[in-house]
Amino acid sequence: MKRFAAIAILPAALLSLGACGIFGGDDDEELQPAELLDFEATLPVRKAWSAKVGKGSEFLRLALRPAGDGNRVYAASFDGNVVAFDAASGKRVWTVELDLNLSSGPGVGEDLVVVGGQDGDVIALRSEDGSEVWRVNIAGESLATPLIKDDSVAVLTIDGRLRALSRFDGSEKWVLEQSYPALTLRGSASPILVGTTLIAGFDNGRVVASRLADGTTEWEALLSPPSGRSDLERLSDVDGYMTAIGQDVYASGYHGRVAAVAAESGQALWAREISAHTGVGADWNNVYVVDEQGELIALSRRNGSDVWRQSALLRREPTTPVAFNTAVAVGDFEGYLHFFDNSDGRPVARVRVGKGMLSGPPVVVGGQLVVQSESGDIATFVVPQPESPGNAPDISSGST
User: Fold this and answer.
1) 229 pLDDT tier (thresholds 50, 70, 90)
2) N or C end: fewer C-beta atoms under 10 angstroms in the chain?
3) What is the pLDDT of residues 353-383, one digit of tens each?
4) What is the CATH number of the domain that holds 305?
5) How far is the first Cα of the chain from the last one, in angstroms, to the nearest whole number?
6) Domain of 4, in residue numbers
7) How crowded is residue 89: how many other Cβ atoms within 10 Å of its Cβ?
8) One domain for residues 6 and 44
9) How far apart are CA 147 and CA 145, in angstroms?
10) How many helices (H) and strands (E) does the chain have?
11) Strands (E), 267-366
12) Residue 66, preceding peptide bond in cis (omega within 30° of 0)
């Protein structure tokens, strides 16, 4: 367990030391986080509501990320709070205080809210009122959001095991195990579902597709082959968030590649040599990644070619990019949420959630962008739609 924690804290520690000038004084710009530059905001981002979920989890690299079902937003904190908010107003609907430290979740679906504990507990709560449905211990920490579909709850743990638990009582239905290397980054890629196929990334650089119903492996793809002599050079984790648009799956690996893979076969559609461990975002036109230096890159969904690059967040530990409205939203280590135009990458807005680091990507819930900081703050943002002029023609009635 200590092996995972040590490698996870290393990037943040180096960033902090670099910011203080320890590696070469204040003049060494190569180790400094990029300074935030002024610009004219053109996207009218407005905070809809904000709240406190619980105590923070600075530098623990947990998978505590908000989730929603359209009507409610659910969030969990390191100190064991699970909270449901009304998505429109931010009103607290219910709060459950679990007597354990949480490391992942919540996953939401099929009337359940599922969270994972640091010591291997998986807890299912009823989404309506927060009452506990079941609790099991799978003897492994999860740093991936649980996935709930039909009668299964899929949970990926840092020891390379993907389990499907019964939605009804938490009993184990099947388990898939992958080997993991001697040294890995702390984190896991949250499984995603395409149709009835469960797709997960592992620390050995592989992406595996399994049948959700029984765990039968449908295909494996080596996304990020290990290379180099040392364990550090051979890091090839598929840890970042994956995404799917239609039948195309997009994933990234550390010291490896960003690739588009066909969900039905595992065949690579295209691949780029870009080291990106935070994951991949996408919309219908582009795929968005952040490389290991913090450069935001937009690639064409069609063939992976560069569309634009933006270096404003170098060494600011940007999160996985998320498509929102006409922009791409990215958080950073100082609690800022940045918005870049999805067509050319120019900055269009910037807001601050709080002083806590934003380590998890924003989440789109019912037209709102929801983000949670490592200090336990949650906030939602909207882009108000312009009102139609009073004298505008009523197109629906056919008037001119």
Assistant:
1) low
2) C
3) 988 899 889 999 989 999 999 888 999 999 9
4) 2.40.128.630
5) 69
6) 1-32
7) 10
8) no
9) 6
10) 1, 33
11) 268-272, 280-282, 286-290, 296-300, 306-310, 322-324, 327-331, 336-341, 347-352, 363-365
12) no
